[in-house]
Design goal:
The protein has 148 residues and is an alpha+beta fold. Helix content is 26%, strand content 34%. InterPro entries: Acyl_CoA_acyltransferase, GNAT_dom.
């Protein structure tokens, strides 16, 4: 597996296509989540992905402060294979990047209710009441980066 990190303007058209294809395949097709996937925020982000000989296997978007919240925010976390630690790897790299490269003092995520346990294991905690978006329950969570 190979880890990649690029800003939006550094992505090749092929990389961007593969990232968007994975996001649409999982969020829109598989999870039937009717949302505006191309939301105008990609150009304000670091894009992390893991690939192997079969292509893109996992992705995480790390947004600059002020885009989703006052803090650095994780969004569009997606993996092709689940249960193999890939999501944890991407999130851990993202947390270190947020603190050490972006100078963040906290990271937020609006996590699907079913994924909150994974985020809690990485030091996130609920900081607001759950919200319903696109018919799905999400939990606002924050990591104060104290353990990074």
């Amino acid at each position: 597996m190979e880890l990649h990190c690029k800003r939006f303007d550094e992505l090749t058209t092929t990389e961007l296509y593969e990232i968007l294809r994975l996001r649409v395949d999982v969020f829109v097709a598989e999870q039937e989540c009717a949302r505006k996937e191309i939301d105008g925020k990609d150009n304000h982000a670091y894009h992390f992905w893991v690939s192997d000989e079969n292509g893109l296997q996992g992705y995480l978007r790390v947004l600059e402060p002020g885009i989703n919240s006052e803090h650095v925010a994780f969004s569009r976390m997606v993996v092709r294979k689940r249960g193999c630690g890939l999501a944890r790897q991407l999130l851990t790299v993202g947390l270190h990047h947020a603190k050490n490269v972006m100078g963040a003092d906290a990271v937020t995520v609006t996590a699907r209710y079913t994924t909150t346990g994974m985020y809690e294991k990485l030091g996130f905690h609920k900081y607001a009441e759950p919200v319903i978006m696109d018919g799905t329950e999400y939990v606002p969570m924050k990591n104060d980066l104290s353990s990074i």
